[in-house]
Write a structure and sequence with these properties.
heterodimer, A: 113 residues, mainly beta, seven-stranded mixed β-sheet, four-stranded antiparallel β-sheet, B: 115 residues, 12 strands, 0% helix
Chain lengths: 113, 115
Amino acid sequence: DTAVSQTPKYLVTQMGNDKSIKCEQNLGHDTMYWYKQDSKKFLKIMFSYNNKELIINETVPNRFSPKSPDKAHLNLHINSLELGDSAVYFCASKGVGSYNEQFFGPGTRLTVL
Amino acid sequence: AQSVSQHNHHVILSEAASLELGCNYSYGGTVNLFWYVQYPGQHLQLLLKYFSGDPLVKGIKGFEAEFIKSKFSFNLRKPSVQWSDTAEYFCAVNAPGGSQGNLIFGKGTKLSVKP
């Protein structure tokens, strides 16, 4: 029943490792997003993606890459993890049109040691 | 570029007190405005949204917000808060037709309600 789901919920890893976070939405939405919430709770868009276009926030390091195997999934792959990558990552999705709200996933708390 | 300012970083209230959280945005054109709530350890949930029409918007759990175009504001209000309203509140804006509807969030206001 969960509209937007993410796995894992918690991820603890060492610096330098490569990890992925998965996101799935069962709402039939066309656009998906990744947000980063830092330790001060500030939410910032990282990527927005639909089947036509990927838009990357220019402040996001190229170690981060979204991968979409199909319309319902947008996974986040992170290479060479750094301490500063520790945060909560939220996936979201939105239907067609400008008047639709975004639905958020439960978040993945990433801790880099 | 669009930006959102939330004036209060942390608000502490007693139960039954009235709440008003400030939100201002910077964008000269038509905007869509949102308030999201994040309960401790949970994901963001939509409280209310404004797209057009009546500038006084009613949301879930007794919350409302008023869009004042001349002031570029979209303040959140609730007449009587409850302990269960303890959460982080985020104001957000996007420009219709803007790049895939990206939301620009304010830095959030933490609300603590004392029983």
